[in-house]
Automatic annotation (TrEMBL):
Similarity section: Belongs to the cytochrome P450 family.
Organism: Sphingopyxis witflariensis
Keywords: Heme, Iron, Metal-binding, Monooxygenase, Oxidoreductase
GO biological process, one term: cholesterol catabolic process
Protein name in UniProt: Cytochrome P450
Parts forming coiled coils: none
Amino acid sequence: MDFQINDIANPKLYGDPARLQSFYAWLRAEHPVARAEPEGFRPFWVVSRHAAIREIERQPEIFNAGPRNTLMPIMVEQANRQYFGFEAGVYSLVVIDGERHQELRGLTQNYFLPKNIRKLEALIGDLARQYVSRLDDLGGACDFAADLAFWYPLRVAMTILGIDETDEARMLHLTHELFGSSDPDIVRPGMTQAEHLVAVNQDYVAFFDEVTKDRQANPRDDVATLIANGRPGDRDMTPAERMGYYIIIATAGHDTTAASIAGGLKALMDMPGEIERLRADRNLVKSFANEAIRWTAPVKHFFRNVVEDYELGGVMLRRGDHVMLSYGAATRDEAAFEQADMFRLDRGLNNHLAFGYGPHMCLGQFLAKLEIEAFFHALLDKVETIEPHGPAIYTEAAFVSGIKSLPVKYRLR
Ligand code: HEM
């Protein structure tokens, strides 16, 4: 196929998963450390091999997470700087480095450890069954992504954060607007992408300012209370730190998990006999869930900022350069995974990079896995057969993307 490095910034590439995977394979094989200079963006390096990304992530003192953290057009970075004083727009854990990052991460870290997440098992199992039971009313055919997959992880995230069910649709809409700002279907009518993002951020600020007031007056047992009242490192959080914390907890966990659920189901439906195999051996649900995350890699990249000259794979990265870590490409690296381009629900060791690696590795990884496992247990209990009923449609976005529509038909047990 006819590729150019700059295609990495083209949202359309992400709407076509077969082409995306061919592009990633081409990058890994022929341009493992590639210079991208797409029009409208500041230049950057793209790193696509598993081992090279880990080499970078092991050295956070050389590769900062902030200030440039994801791929954004220059116009959006400028608008963010103007309105928020910071080019990433949202000042969240993923753009903060060093000691302050550790302090802030420490505020909620315990909450997300496996021993605490296991306490949520019954609650999450109930929610999984509740959402899967929507199939009872959908008459044998539905859009599995829009009718089920998006809603369940959202409810889990909102329950943990402590947001009422009545505000859920608004939160889902804002997440889609935040991550899908390059998708013409999603951008607010009559606005440029930059204006759209600024408006979305302002809506978040208005919403979470109310949450802070409420939790300071009436603390509860939820993550919003930790954020509203926390003093990490014995210091008050700045308004930007607090807002960034709410937004990352509210957004990081549901579109990503939803994309893994929908993509995992699609992979199962595409492999005859595998649903029955999974149903017959429930021990495989764990490895299946992790394979679904590797396979879909909903977070396609994060950036790192070079703070001192460094040679990577024979290429000199200079202080001040920016590096895109292509988690999407690394999860299919043949050098790291046997049969990397096959979905294997019994894959053993699966040290994929879909959750990142190093100090910023996903805080919600145990929760995400538990959610996906619970969902598929519930689904396997419920459906006798489930199969595609039209083409899957993928979000056209270079940062977080995955299936946005998955028509299926099914028969219940
Ligand atoms: C960080 C992916 C689910 C919360 C990350 C990062 C990735 C990622 C790649 C690393 C950022 C970096 O390299 O700078 C995913 C995927 C998920 C998922 C693929 C689902 C399949 C969740 C869930 C939560 C969550 C359920 C829970 C709220 C976070 C937070 C961070 C993070 C707070 C920032 C950690 C830090 O910077 O210290 N995630 N995530 N994620 N994730 Fe997830």
